[in-house]
Amino acid sequence: MVMREAVCLRRLGGRRCEEVRFGRFLANRKVTAERLLEGWNEQTAPAARGRHVLAIQDTTELNFRTTPTRRRGLGEIGKGGGHGALLHAMLALDADTGLCLGLVAGQIWTRRGRVSLAHGKRPLAQKESQRWLSTAAQAKTVLSAAASVTVIADRESDIYAEWATLPSPGFHLLTRVMHDRALSDGSSLYAAAERLAPADRAIVELPARAPHRAARRTQLTLRFGPIKVRRPRSNPGAPDLPASVALNLVEVVEMQPPDGVEPVHWRLLTTHAIPDAASAWRIVNWYKARWTIEQLFRVLKSQGLKLEDSQLDTADRLIKLTAIAAKAAALTLQLVQARHGRDTQPANLAFAPAEIGALDALNPSVEGKTRLQKNPHPRHSLPWAAWIIARLGGWDGYPSSKPPGPVTFHHGLQYFRAFATGWACKNVCMP
Fold first, then answer.
1. Would 430 be classed as within a structural domain?
2. Residue 403: pLDDT above 90?
């Protein structure tokens, strides 16, 4: 999938017999989505050893095309009439470099009808929101060799049971605030934030977020301080949790946004200690890394593998295909990031042995005569492979040039696929 940038079985197989083999694999009852999900972290766990890992989790909807007479066993998603599946994934990044280390854990499911009992009256174990806790709990095992772990998520993960049960030495949480929580002193979280004195200001460049936000430069005001969140009174199972949890609040707000533009306003809760403004800005930067998982979902869907175009006929096979495609999307993200050469993970994360042989053969032809145009990365490392693919895609190879982007890698992979096919036939004798 990484090489062919597709999930279509016909394209993956190349020949009818290979297409049938892939189809049989997905139909095999012994091939389960659970086991495929377990395989997500086979390379991630050793890669995380000794690092501070940002474990970012989020959920995306997969809208597979259906008709009233052909639902393919898929349930409702979103607020419209779409049918599909939901993918919840956790992605590991190196906190110092931002490099993707791979997938950690997750869940894939399709809804089986609507639940009649109100959300607030159901215990957490019977809610879809339990995925935030169970995935983070899995991360404790998978990332046990890491120096420390910070689990990062958006507002839907702001669940009291998560704050009360998951943190431990070296295992932290960082989440954007969902709503105005009650504090143990009788006040509210939002009121406590307003009482905090401004600690610092900084000029930041906000990137464009299509289609509604243009890039702009703005000044953000920083405030931070300790708070103690009170246990909710109307949550089933809450009496078993501690009466309060001590956390730290970080708030950044845009005081003078342009006319007609919604101001930046983040309220972040974390278990990390925040002794000074520098530590608070570090928390903000770690949270900004959450956008990397949005890149993963784009690679999986519209800007890469186009998973939602799959025509597989059952939900079971689509879920298995999703589990495989999610890992391929993470590998593609690693390949694009490897262009910087800040890490030396092996090329076999994304390329088969025969393909690495083809890269070996190509490397001399894409290197220039000068030292600056030589492949600077360790042979058979992922940065080494990414450098070759980028050169095939039209990058000039000079360190001073603009780094190659996804489009360049797309063109390079297209060229390499054709070459690798021919390379595989190099010893075939023609009659």
1. no
2. no
